[in-house]
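Re-run with default settings, no changes from the original entry. Doing this only to confirm the output is reproducible before filing.
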Amino acid sequence: MNKRFRLSRSIDFKRVRTQGSSFVHPLIVLVKGNDLSSSLRVGVSVSKAVGNAVQRNHAKRVLREIIRPLLGQLRTDVEFVLVARSAINKAKFADLQIAVAKLVHKAKLTTQTPTAGRIID
């Protein structure tokens, strides 16, 4: 994912988390900030509960790779944060793609419906 689409400062993460609304999945939590942003920006957060540094960095890379092809379909006036849950290490890539697509649709960040495989509730 291109760096211009990333949330990078801790103050931005805090703002999105305090002012935003959450959408939950067993693998990932999507926190959508207010719709007053001037551009699309995405943050990825992984806590130490997920595992050691190698596992956390792998989870961040996977989530960024999943969101990268969706950037063209997302609204351009919103910021959101993807928060990995501890079950992410045991999940398959396809299941994570479905989870992210479902959360993005539920948060109304895009008008398209998730089309990849089965939907996990």
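Helices lie at 10-19, 53-67, 93-106. The chain has a mean pLDDT of 85.
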